[in-house]
Amino acid sequence: MMRTLLSTCITLVLVASGSSQTPPPVATENEQKGREMFRAGKVAESLAQLQLAVKSNPQLPPAKVMLADLFLKAGNGPQARIHLEQAAAEDPENPDVLAFNGQIALAEGRVTDAILNCQAALQAAQSPRWDAAQRKKFARVAHLGLASGFQTRKDYKNARTHVQAVLIDEPKNGTIRMQAAAIRFYLDQHEEAYKEFLESFADDPTLDPPELSLAALWDGKGKPDEAEKWFKKAAELRPNSDKMARGYARWLMDRGRIDEAKPYLDSAAKLDPNSRETTALLGLGARYRKDFVAAEKIFEEMSRNAPADAFAAWNLAISLAESDDAKKRQRAIEIAEVAFRQNSRSAEGVAVLGWCYFKAGRIEEADKALRAAVGAGPVARDTAYYLSKVLVDKGNTTDAKRALKDAIVATGPFVYKADAEKLLADLEKKP
Description:
Blueprint: H1 12-17, H2 29-39, H3 43-56, H4 63-73, H5 77-90, H6 95-107, H7 111-124, H8 132-152, H9 156-169, H10 174-186, H11 190-203, H12 210-220, H13 224-237, H14 242-254, H15 258-271, H16 276-288, H17 292-305, H18 310-321, H19 326-342, H20 347-359, H21 363-374, H22 381-393, H23 397-409, H24 417-429
């Protein structure tokens, strides 16, 4: 699938880990053991190993910051904050502590807190207690964290200032230059943005093609005609790019243009047949065509190869739920329930579970799950369709029509777009 390009927030996790210019360092033996202990649920033993790692390598963040990072990546925000607070109590002026606190604040939408923490980290990095290498590392993370915060705030001038501060030391870092190019786009410097995208791609050909990047940005700005112009340019200039093929195919499918997407799906399958991105897109293509047997086969294999892959589990559950076979519908519920327990905070996961309940005739459970999904944040278009079906079943056509209208005029992926349009037309005919 096409990677969502440079969302408004450039995550601190990405910028702190480096890119083509600065590959992440190889984990030491103690670090590796610490991670293994954490995965085994042995938190105290994990912390002990991380403390040994820090003792042998002072360039590492404090052990409790590293442990907080493991909790955050595991989806356990409360425990991440607890260990971060402990690290802050032990060393409140440590730039790693301040920057990581900024990361959590940004992830939770507390933009001002994120900016203040990164500014404090930048200032603390100048302390004589740090050597030159540490000061440089701290400044890099702080500058990119500030770029994230200011970009989220749509203060693009300040965001660019901090990205440029990193590019001075890393002029060939394609990932960071790509971020700088996106900020130029937001500043309405479109020609300059394209030039920087070209430069970033030249420095790192593993990135998205420049034209694809601009297509995504125009699409995010609500300009589909401009987006398609750049998709077409990408197809013309990069006919052998699997990323171009996947990106254009997904964009066309999301707009219901299934037949137009097929040549690009076929191209992606030839250019990069074994990647997860291509396999996932082929599965989505089958769902868009309502070929649920083919979709089931694809997502079954994906789930078998990666049992923890929530995307594969959700799509397998939906494909099975659409079957006329009651046993398959029951299996869909079982898969969706397991995936929900593993991703209990995911609005998409609970929406899929609700849809599986609905297709099995368990209306009250479907209603409860889908209302929870709607209350969890921005409502996906397919989720709105699922809810509308439940509302119709319960006789609430007024709210069902409202949900359908909102979904149809929204933007983004919508596998059930044709179904939603037909259902709304049928409801409008009724008195």
